[in-house]
From TrEMBL:
Pfam families: Oscp1. The gene is OSCP1. Transmembrane segments: none annotated. PANTHER family: OXIDORED-NITRO DOMAIN-CONTAINING PROTEIN, PROTEIN OSCP1. This is Protein OSCP1 isoform X2.
């Protein structure tokens, strides 16, 4: 397990979250000023300096439920509210999109280019906010400093850690199904065509060398694919050409996106319920989570501006039906961390969560999202 994986996981999932929210804000015809406020508030919170400092510290990945809680708080950092079903769908879309990108990376190092594609697109959402742009650029420089000099082996370990995190997720997404890059069982289709990784040759030739290192024989074979050589390597510069398209906004063309549980996922969920046996690492995870969320610096809503509810489904009826049919084991409503004995940590977490309280007026204007705001009270 790589201790450098969490920042890449968080930033890429966060980028996918912003793509989805931007698309739904436009689809629901949310007024431009409110939509901009939501995006600016979330992005500003996401790239908060203290938050980034905690994020970039070498550490193991959080559990899926703990990480989901961070995104829940992030999604509610502004006047927008999501109810449980919409938040579940949002997280499903985020995770499956980034899983697809990690699987299709030509080289392990290319996960960094995927991250830069997300950051480039995020900057396009906040062109009118120079302060937030500076926050994103600072994160870009941190990524370059920390990851720019890593070896191929270290990137392979990061990629392996990411794939272990995603390995049991097989949620069907309509865009992937329509584009025939995902099967009906929720597993992705790996292409047998396109450019090969930078620095490698198109398959089809076997070279044989003697003991002196001299080439003595060449044998050609049919590889069955349609590969081409990579024209150039993606740039890691601030305004460079990434070449790789993975991580760009697939929602830029407005089309509905649905998610469905495959039968395999439902069966797996019933077999992988969280153990009630206390996890010896749970206390440390709680400590880390408390620090991470505490570093977000989420501001309390100020002024009389009313909130609004965003629906990730086409209709309210679809949203309600999704909430009823989703397997309980795949819902992230409660984080089950056995760390109740640590009074100091609980007090710190309670203090942090107290700062997240929203005004009564905001609660009334977004009643369908109230249950989300109590998500961590069960700790």
């Amino acid at each position: 397990m790589s201790m450098r994986t969490l920042p890449l996981l968080f930033l890429n999932l966060g980028g996918e979250m912003l793509y989805i929210l931007d698309q739904r804000l436009r689809a629901q015809n949310i007024p431009g000023d409110k939509a901009r406020k939501v995006m600016n508030d979330i992005i500003s919170t996401m790239f908060n300096r203290k938050f980034m400092e905690e994020l970039f510290k070498p550490q193991e990945l959080y559990s899926k439920k703990a990480l989901r809680t961070v995104y829940d708080r992030l999604a509610h950092a502004s006047i927008m509210r999501l109810n449980q079903a919409s938040m579940d769908k949002l997280y499903d879309l985020m995770t499956m999109a980034f899983k697809y990108q990690v699987l299709l990376c030509p080289r392990p190092k290319d996960v960094l280019l995927v991250t830069f594609n997300h950051l480039d697109a995020i900057k396009g959402l906040i062109q009118d906010s120079p302060t937030i742009l500076h926050q994103v650029d600072e994160t870009f420089r941190q990524l370059t400093d920390i990851y720019g000099g890593l070896s191929a082996g270290e990137f392979q370990l990061i990629r392996q850690t990411l794939l272990i995190f995603f390995q049991d997720l097989h949620i069907r997404v309509s865009i992937f199904l329509k584009d025939k890059v995902q099967n009906s069982n929720g597993r992705f289709v790996l292409p047998a065509s396109g450019p090969v990784p930078w620095g490698t040759e198109v398959p089809g030739l076997i070279r044989t060398f003697n003991s002196k290192g001299e080439e003595v024989k060449r044998t050609e074979f049919k590889h069955g694919g349609s590969y081409v050589a990579a024209l150039k390597e993606g740039s890691l510069e601030l305004y460079g050409d990434r070449v790789l398209k993975l991580g760009t906004n697939m929602y830029s063309v407005n089309r509905p996106v649905e998610t469905h549980m495959s039968a395999a996922s439902k069966n797996l969920a019933s077999q992988t319920q969280e153990s009630i046996v206390p996890n010896p690492l749970a206390k440390e995870e709680l400590n880390l989570l408390a620090r991470l969320i505490g570093g977000m610096g989420i501001q309390k809503p100020s002024g009389p501006e009313p909130g609004f509810r965003l629906n990730l489904f086409t209709t309210d009826e679809e949203e309600e039906q999704a909430a009823l049919t989703r397997p309980e084991e795949l819902s992230y409503e409660v984080i089950n961390i056995q760390a109740t004995q640590d009074q100091q940590t609980n007090q710190e977490l309670a203090r942090i969560m107290g700062e997240f309280e929203i005004t009564d007026q905001s609660r009334r204007s977004a009643s369908k999202g109230d249950d989300l705001l109590a998500m961590m009270d069960e700790l």
